[in-house]
Amino acid sequence: MIKTVGYAATSATSPLSLFNFERREVGPTDVLVDILYCGVCHSDLHTNRNEWGGSTVYPAVTGHEMIGRVKAIGNQVTKFKVGDMAGVGCMYDSCRTCASCRAGEEQYCDVGGTIFSYNSPDKHTGGVTYGGYSTLTVCDEAFTLKVSPKLDPAAASPLLCAGITTYSPLSHWGVGKGQKVGIVGLGGLGHMGLKFAHAFGAETVLFTTSPGKAADAKRLGADTVVISKDASDMAKHTGSFDFILNTVSASHNLDAYLQLLKRDGTMCMVGVPEHPHPSPFVGNLIFRRRALAGSLIGGIKETQEMLDFCAEHNIVSDIEVIPMQDINKAYERMLKSDVKYRFVIDMASLKSEAVKAA
Ligand code: NAP
Ligand code: ZN
Ligand code: ZN
Question: What is the pTM of this model?
Answer without folding.
Answer: 0.98
